[in-house]
Amino acid sequence: MIATITGQLIHKSPAYVILDVHGVGYQVFTPLSSFYHLPEIKQTVTLKTHTYVREDALQLYGFLTNEEKDLFLLLITISGIGPKLALNILSGMPVAELVSAVQQGDVARLCTIPGIGQKIAARLALELKEKIAAIKTAEAEVVPGENKERKQMVEDALSALVNLGYNRNVAKDIVRMISVAHDAKEENLSVEKLLKESLKRLSR
User: For the segment 87-121, what is each residue's pLDDT rounded down to a tens digit?
Assistant: First the structure.
C-alpha cells in the first residue's frame, strides 16, 4: 500500500497529475480541491495517497491534505460510491462545506454536486453523518460567508467571474478556497484581491 508519494510534478490537469519519482512517472488521480493548490510544473510535491487495487487495475488517488484523504476513504465505504464518484464528490464541494452539509442532513445541498442525485445524497447524509464527525479541518472552523461582509465579498467575486465567462461551480470552489486560506492565515482580503487571485488560478 502506497500511503504517500513525493516527486517532481511533470503534468497536472483537473483529472490527474503525473509525478516523476526517480525517473518513474506515477499517474495520480486528484480532486479539484487538491488540483487548485498544486505547485507549478517541475516543482516537488507530496501527496497523501490511497492505492486502489482490482483485478484489471491498480490506481493511485492523491490528496494534498489528510482531511481530503480521510473523507475520500469514508466516502468509498458508502454503498454505491466507488473511488471515481468519491473523487467527483470532493471536486464538487469544498471539504468544509461537504462536512457541514452531511452533518446538517442537507440533501438539497448535496444534490448540487454534479453527478449526485437524490438517492445518493440521502445515503450520504444518513450513512456518513456519524463517521464524518471525526474529521476536523481548518476549513470547518472558518467557513467563508459566516459573516455578512465576507459572504457579500465572496458573492461579488463569484458574480464577476461568472460575468467573465467562467463556469460557476469551478469559480465558486476557487473563490471559497482562497477565502478560507486567507482566513486561516488571518490575512486581510478585499474583493479586488480575491478576484485577482481567483483569475490567476483559473488561468493556469
Answer: 999 998 888 788 888 888 889 989 988 888 899 99
- Give the length of the chain: 204
Is it the case that residue 55 has pLDDT exceeding 60? yes
d(CA 135, CA 57): 29
CA 140 to chain centre: 13
> Residue written as cell 486502489?
52
The second-level CATH assignment, the architecture, of 142-202 is Orthogonal Bundle (1.10)
SS3 12: strand
**Distance between CA atoms of 178 and 202, rounded to whole angstroms?**
12
- Nearest-angstrom CA–CA distance, 52 and 62: 11
Angle at the Cα of 146 (from 145 to 152), degrees rounded to 5? 35
Q: Mean per-residue pLDDT for 152-180?
A: 78
Q: Name, in order, each residue with C-beta under 8 angstroms of 126's C-beta and a sequence gap of 6 or more.
A: 105
Q: Would you state the cell numbers that stand for residue 121, as one nine-digit string?
A: 445524497
Quote the cell numbers at residue 171. 469559480
Alpha carbon distance 102, 110 (integer Å):
8
Q: Which CATH code of 2.40.50.140, 1.25.40.80, 3.30.70.1450, 1.10.510.10 fits the domain covering 4-63?
A: 2.40.50.140
DSSP 146: S
CATH for the stretch 66-140: 1.10.150.20
